[in-house]
Amino acid sequence: MTTATDGIHVISPAGEIDHHTGDALRHALDNASETPRPRVVVAMRHVTFIDSSGINILIAAHNALSEASGWLRLAAIGDPISRTLSLVGVDAVIDYPETLRHPLAS
Question: Angle at CA 13, nearest 5°, toward 10 and 16?
Fold first, then answer.
């Protein structure tokens, strides 16, 4: 599900993000990046699993959005997903505040 709030695209994937399901997230991120200075929040509240292909999708989107003078934020991440992202160093690349409200205020 994708919505827009004050020009910020909010993408809310659910379930697993892996090599079988990652295309839906990639497609949503590609659509959101078509605006000038795209700003995107991926609300991860309902994500139960993410593998390396899902992580690569997020990093590629972060890089593309940054090159377009925009940004990508991750929000509402549960502990298991947060731990996975921290273990592989995503937290050093992509900003993810603890609440969804935080990135929308940026």
Answer: 155
Residues 61-82 have a mean pLDDT of 92
Residue reference for tokens 């934020």: 73
Distance CA 66, CA 7 (A): 16
Residue carrying the six token digits 């992509």: 94
The model's pTM is 0.86
Residue 88 identity = V
How does DSSP classify residue 104?
Answer: H
- Distance (Å) of CA 62 to CA 20, 56, 85: 21, 10, 14
Instruction: Kindly list the distances between the CA atom of residue 48 and the CA atoms of 5, 13, 36, 81, in Å, as whole numbers in the listed order.
Output: 25, 10, 32, 7
Q: What gap in Å lies between CA 102 and CA 30, rounded to an integer?
A: 23
